[in-house]
């Protein structure tokens, strides 16, 4: 399962695995939860990486060849590769080499863990 | 309205105001949307700031005195103030001085815009 690969890579999905899912507005997050969330948010703290993630995550079939991604940016191949590596190391995407090219997929659990962290609190009175 | 203050400050709420709300998994975000999202994600790319935001956003009544926040960290007052300034400039919190202390509130619209950006696509087939 792809999820196992994510956890093994120390990815964003861990925010919601193993320990309690962090919800910022529900109760103060622990130091461990904050460290893990910050690590993933930091990976998204760059416009190129946000665009790359969106291109990958919104692509028909959920998979994109790196050869398609490069064309969308006025950047060199190595620069694109660097940004993709940061997204991979943050556990937001996976890359699989098939022949000449690497094919990227977003990891829905990782995005869901971040969205969960930012959602309104379910307890009354909070998040007002 | 607090929302006007946010927009005036160039805050995260702008991601979802003015232009189309960005949803990473629905369609590729524009360069402008990516720049604005990255700016706010970058502010969250630090464990202390994630904890500060969570302490503020989860607090009873939705407001916290800076005097309460400082005690939660083994950091100097100026360091806490710096991190709070980054959160303010990103449009994630507001600070209001009343007498000796500054009182902080999270900006729900800013958190909602980020959660929206990370949610699954509503169109069939995407986000799989």
From TrEMBL, chains A, B:
Keyword DNA damage: no
Keyword terms of this UniProt record: DNA-binding, Transcription, Transcription regulation
PROSITE patterns for the chain: HTH_ARSR_2 (PS50987)
Domain HTH arsR-type span(s) in chain numbering: 29-126
Keyword Transcription regulation: yes
Pfam families referenced in this protein's UniProt entry, alphabetically: HTH_5 (PF01022)
NCBIfam families recorded: HTH_metalloreg
UniProt name for this protein: ArsR family transcriptional regulator
Organism: Streptoalloteichus tenebrarius (strain ATCC 17920 / DSM 40477 / JCM 4838 / CBS 697.72 / NBRC 16177 / NCIMB 11028 / NRRL B-12390 / A12253. 1 / ISP 5477)
């Amino acid at each position: 399962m792809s999820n196992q690969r994510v956890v093994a890579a120390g990815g964003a999905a861990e925010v919601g695995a193993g320990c309690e899912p962090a919800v910022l507005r529900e109760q103060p997050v622990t130091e461990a939860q904050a460290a893990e969330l910050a690590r993933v948010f930091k990976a998204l703290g760059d416009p190129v990486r946000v665009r790359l993630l969106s291109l990958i995550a919104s692509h028909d079939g959920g998979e994109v060849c790196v050869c398609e991604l490069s064309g969308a940016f006025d950047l060199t191949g190595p620069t694109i590769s660097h940004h993709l590596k940061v997204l991979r190391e943050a556990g937001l995407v996976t890359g699989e080499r098939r022949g000449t090219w690497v094919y990227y997929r977003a990891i829905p659990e990782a995005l869901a863990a971040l969205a969960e962290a930012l959602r309104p609190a379910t307890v009354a009175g909070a998040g007002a």
